[in-house]
Amino acid sequence: MAQLNIGWSEVNITPDKKVSLYGQFAERISEYVEKPLMATAMAVECGGDQMVLCACDLESVHDDLIAAIREKLAGNEYGLDENKIIFSAIHTHTGPQHIKPATGVKNGSFTWIREVLETCLAPGQKYVEAAEVSSDPTVATGEEVFVMLVERLTMVCIEAWNARKPGGFSNAFARAAIGMCRRVDYSDGTGQMWGDANTAVFTELEGGNDSGIELMYIFDDAKKLTGIVINLACPAQCVQHRLFVSPDFWGETKVLLRKYFGEDIFMLPLCSPAGDQCPVDLVRWVNPDTDVHDPNLIRHNPPVRKADPSMFDIEGMKKAGKRVAREVIDTFEEGLDEPQTDVKFEHRHYLMQLPLRRATLAQKIQAEKNIKEYIRNKNGADVDFNDLAHLQNDIGILIRFVEQEKKDIYDTEYHCIRMGTVAISSDPFELFLDYANQIKARAVCEQTFLIQLAGGSAGYLPTEKAENHGHYSAFIPSGNVGHVGGDQLVRQTLKDISELFGDDYKVYHYADEQ
Fold first, then answer.
1. N or C, which terminus of the chain has less Cβ within 10 Å?
2. From start to end of 72-164, where are the E strands?
3. For residue 100, pLDDT beyond 80
């Protein structure tokens, strides 16, 4: 047992220029800043071990960005272990992409897919951007954003580390309907991301949802609240198609929490595994107010529903943010446990070797045929984001086939921490909810905080059921690892949690009563 020392910092990571908004097929340029993008860091030191959780209002935090920050921090004078910083993203689609300078390599699967598509075009054909993100000089480049992020994310981690003081935390639980399954299954055995449920062949939403919110209220040694850690299973994707910079519903949550607790309160937003989750109710579909330019979301004359406002619009975003804030405030008002200050603390981190999801030769050959036939049927017409969406799987298969000739293991950054009665675990995937439920149900601790898109961006990690049903998020190129690796990740996480907590928590088995 040792005294917890905790520090906070927050930094603005909003680019000074307009940005190419990242995360959709259609190219978008920001028109204004709805709310600024922030990075928030909480540093913890206890008993000679340490951890920094750095949550970023970004779509993802890619490996090359993390590597650049850690290189900058290597051998620092503060005693901060750069390898024990966990960088994560809220997965907002109204933020910028970042590209490592001077390599010529774009980070992000859709950029790669577009580059391959352009090599397949007939003479005279070209790719036409929905917005001129590649040629507008007033738009910040991915390289400029990368350089800015390296500086500011390095700074926020150092500031949080240097601000650490004796403190403690009260972990708690709340519940709010934020995330819902975004994969629809049909009677022919197929499934579809963002599928239309208003059809006689609709059978079910493929997965469940988790309305639970894992909470930590952080206090200083005078028991004054300094910040709140909020962990829930939903990406920040309410206004994901809009033409502004925004941290989505998390921005609204922060505004309301600071209105109640004070402007000096920190909020650390952590997205729990939610690869198949979204804020949109696909059963009670409400059309967005404006065109979202997404071929997966086309609905022809849907019935008018009495339901939530469209979660593709600002009104829906505010509703989601209000729900989270209300639960955080209500839980605080209802009373918390005495803060944990002297605790057992241990941080494990390593590269977990998971099997790369592979494509077969037959799939490669079929993909090549599909691309050629599709381009031929265009009859020389130019292509755009709609064509990119249509060909994403076939082009992705070709990319994966080249990649798998060089490696068969995906080195996965993984962290598992014991902090008092709480376990914290992270991975770089958009991990499907079923895996999180398996971990939380079986973990031998009081409460489990799971963080997705942390320590890199490794794509979706679907269940076997989703792989069998197909479509985006379950395609082979949608992620680097498939369900076999997902099962391995669950087993290893449970093993580490069990070892970290030892005999402090009894593992219950039904056989004990026989």
1. C
2. 85-89, 139-140
3. yes
